[in-house]
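Worked example 4.2. Below are the chains of a multi-component assembly; read each line carefully before continuing.
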Amino acid sequence: MSDSSKKVFGILAEFSGSDTLLKAAGQIRGAGYSKFDCHSPFPIHGMDKSMGLGRSPLGYMIGIAGLAGLLGITLFIYWVSVLDYPLIISGKPLFSYQAFIPPIFAITILASAIMATLGMIALNKFPRLHHPLFSSEQFRRVTDGGFFVSVEADDPKFIQAETVALLKSIGATNVEVVKSK
Amino acid sequence: MSSSTDQSGPDVLVTGNPTFESITESVCRIPEAKTPTAWKVMFSTSLTLAIGFFALIGYLFWEGIGVWGLQNPVGWGFAIVNFVFWVGIGHAGTLISAILFLLRQRWRTAINRFAEAMTIFAVICALIFPTIHVGRIWVIYWTMPIPNQMYMWPNFRSPLLWDAFAVGTYFACSFMFWYVGLIPDLATLRDRAVGKIKQVLYGLFSLGWRGGNRQWRHYELAYLVLAGLSTPLVLSVHSIVSTDFATAVVPGWHTTIFPPYFVAGAIFSGFAMVMTLSLIARYAFKLQHIITQKVLERMNMIMLLTGMMVGYAYGMEFFISWYSGNMYEQFAFVNRAFGPYAWAYWIMISCNVFVPQLFWFKKLRNHLVVMFIASILINVGMWFERFVIVITLARDYLPSAWDYYSPTWHDIGLLIGSFGLFFTMFLLFLRFLPMVAMSEVKAILPQADPHAKGDAHV
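Applying the procedure described above to all two chains together yields the following structure tokens:
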């Protein structure tokens, strides 16, 4: 097993529904595993807690991007309207900030939205065109109606036979060893 | 298995006791099936109109905007009417996808995907009109603060610049929101794809989605934030569009009621367009169990509400013009209702104020034919609302400057052509992408709830 474990990516096991998957997540975590994931066709409420995951850092990233957008566009408009190209229009002061609210607002929203999208893509390490799990035929059902757990071989607690036994004992079916290329 | 939609209680969001697999099947079979003949007919018609649209734009660039019916008092004609009309259509998509998401209105999952698609395509149509209106198309980049050879910068106090920022941001945010929502469903199509080309293409755009909770947690937060960011856009974009008018010292335009009035009208017309499209899609693709009678009824209720808000705005405008004691304001409104464009005004009133009153009756707001015809009439009415507003220009202060505006064949051709472009894009979307947000519909099924007691799984 020791020489073949190099090629093993991990173990994939199917569960019957969202409730059993949620319970399994807690049990696998309770057994000391950290490098595992629960796959489902839709997000399951309470799964983050069950898997012991905290809040996504994406919120802070978006907040920073939004503030940067706000500050950047405000400074840019100030530089354009007061320093580089001062024009008196309808007798208003050069920095008539009230009239600058619409572009400032738009750019703040735009910067945050771009970070929300690209940040999510980056945190998930997307785009990823190949993944060992894609070699599993049954894993195709994960985007249809299948519920799966994958435990990675990199996990310090991972011992193939024991992990398989654990998964089977908590109600997994179709347990499969997934090899990476 | 009950297929009757009338027996479903208020809590049943998807009728017919579907399983996760049956949801996948009923949505995915549409892009996977052989191209239906009806689609080919509709697509070739739309594509012809869209090609005509671009040909007319080419002619416009060659010849200049003199080919339009614009003249001296009426410097804004069909192009601006069409612009405001198409931007307005988009707003319902954002309302459904963002505001109803934040309010946890779970019935929205049936219609949000194609309402969002509708938004994007409508905003594309909208953006074309002010772009081609500038006349000197080759200097369109002047609307954006881009360094140029003249060392000039645009005026950040101008509503026209606000427009470029607001609508540009609106398009970008709507597109990102739509694409992020599509990722899990594209993965479904990838996993079901049989041909190599389909596998590669859907695989490319689904970015390697594996449905793991480590992905869902970032994904859900991104989706929530995008919804939160899109929410103020529903209110801000059309408010800013309305300032194009409201900051001008034209009687009938220079009013503070314009931003809320435009936003209500936008949502009203957008829901009417979603209704038209969903009735067609529901019928053509047999999605009655997902786009249920309840969803349609609720959309009709929103149309009734926003229609009343629009009607209130028409009344209030009239009242304030009288109350202001300003003779030019008073004339502008009396002239709208009884002047040379009275026909347009009364089309607007009939379609936007009278037609939605039908939805007070439960029988009528559940009647498919009634709601289909009403949704089309409402869109006709909302186009005329913008026409009535723009055409106020024809008679402003001095009678010696008055004139009567008539569109040319080119104006009318562009209006028809823009519908061709819209439907071309929409039909491509229906053919190649999942038109219902499968992962979201699955999440609202009773068996999706891990905390549910009892056997909900039939």
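Take a moment to check your reading of the output against the notes. Chain A has five helices and four strands. Residues 1-5 of chain A have pLDDT under 50 and may be disordered.
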